[in-house]
Amino acid sequence: MSESGAPTGVVAAPQRGPNGFALRVSGLSKTFGATRALQDVSIDVRPGEIHALVGQNGSGKSTLIKALAGYHHPDAGAAELDGEPFDIGVEVPDGLRFVHQDLGLVLELSAQDNLALHGGFAKGFGGRVLWREQEQTTHELLRRFDVDIDIHQPLAAATPVERTVVAIAAALQGWHGGSGLLVLDEPTAVLPHDEVERLFAVVHEVRKAGTAVLYVSHRMDEIFEIADRVTILRGGRLVATKDVAQLDPRALAGLMVGEDVDPDYRAPVAAKPDAPIVLETRSIAGKWLRGIDLRVYEGEILGIAGLAGAGVLELPYVITGHAPRGDRVTGELRLPKESDEWRDVGDLKDVNIPLVPSDRQREGVIFEFAVSENLSLSILGRFGRRGKLAHRQEERAVEEWTRRLEIKTETPGSLISTLSGGNQQKVVVARCLATEPDILVLCEPTAGVDIGTRVAIYDLIARLSREGLTVIVSSSDEGDLLAMCTRIVVLRNGTVAQELDGDGLTQQALVSAIEGGD
């Protein structure tokens, strides 16, 4: 921290404009064809305030953020930053900074290069890059996040946590503390508990310098922990702006959804004590894993929890045969219903254990494809012979899974990019289920989806479990695990540290086990 109280590298800024607001938006409207994405929405953010923006998928949050960022030109609306008007949707003042949900990183480049693309390279005589100075600057930018990352490694090989840290560090480069607005759009969507707390510490530093923060999140607990006020959108309209202290989770969920929603929902599923083993592992090791022995039972929903670096993100990919190329993984896996043979986890190509990946946007969907094309990718071999696709058979399968999972789309031929995040997730799940597996593995199943859609996904997974499907859920969101799972395995330092089930499945017990408490 500097003597003025601003975060390191943050420069004191001029005084506020006459209206007393960091950001003021009024009468914002935007239509896409026949869809009214925003209807006369107004929002104001006070200096030094952490202001949450919430609503279900399709409520208009993303459209509002994209208008501020100059991506969408609104039909109507006015905006001011620190009292200075700007042409919203056309110009973006320097004092308006963003960390978008897709992070805006070049994954083929390293963390050092990505940060330099935002803030510029350190250069000497003749424009020569001063690489030693550039490395020092990169380490200083990342040090506040206390994350161990190889700054020269391409970000394609980094974890979602590491990518998020780089994106936030990039947005804060050259930040003029005490003015402007930092927009954080779902920054914690795939972050585990300890990383969220680390991010919150940085957000509070920014606030102390007088800088306002517009914080978009679907995680209810985060809103109550970090925000001063909250603006709720529903169906493109402003529902209310409230002091967070005036609300409780049920009241906020009700404003978002328009009906009474229980934020402490538990899916109707119970453990089956006499169920047979359907998956067994022994001595699984990899980049983070240090010897994992598991037994998974038919029809259960097994949760995998732990801090970043414990192997929580790695284990689902290893047991489904999707370990990152170049990573050396060892250990064995057995599927007793199919065979007593133990299989090398480095060679699971013909094993039907589908994976719903952690990064839906980069690993789960093909945005240039239609809903139907994304859904049927896993079973195209069933439709037709001799290289010809039987379109009618494909259409029937797509219609069946769209109905079974209640996927909301205008038509199956619509681009998947037109769907909400929750419905995109359902398409990925449907693609996996279409292969008729005995086991389904999900990573971060509700990342970036609203509370109403979360409950729908919880219900769907519970129903599949009751029908006999075995589900393994890896999530950085304790709420996901507590809402769905019949048993939770907690990883620490790459090994199984603790198991929770029955009456032991409480939030306090889970957080304590994850963090290594008694």
Characterize this entry briefly.
With 518 residues, the protein is an alpha/beta fold. It contains 15 helices and 20 strands.
Radius of gyration, in Å, reads 24 Å
Chain-averaged pLDDT:
84
In CATH, what is the homologous superfamily of the domain at 277-353 and 437-515?
P-loop containing nucleotide triphosphate hydrolases
Class of secondary structure makeup: alpha/beta
User: Helical stretch count?
Assistant: 15
Tell me what you see in this structure.
With 518 residues, this protein is an alpha/beta fold. Among the domains are: 155 residues, P-loop containing nucleotide triphosphate hydrolases (Rossmann fold), CATH 3.40.50; 156 residues, P-loop containing nucleotide triphosphate hydrolases (Rossmann fold), CATH 3.40.50.300. 29% of the residues lie in helices and 23% in strands. The protein is built from 15 helices and 20 strands. The strands form four sheets. The protein has a six-stranded mixed β-sheet, sandwiched between helices. Strands 16-17-18-13-19-20 form a six-stranded mixed β-sheet, with helices on one face. A four-stranded antiparallel β-sheet has the order 2-1-4-5, with no helix packed on it. Helix 2 runs parallel beside helix 4. The longest helix has 16 residues. The chain is globular and about 70 Å long. The two termini are 34 Å apart.
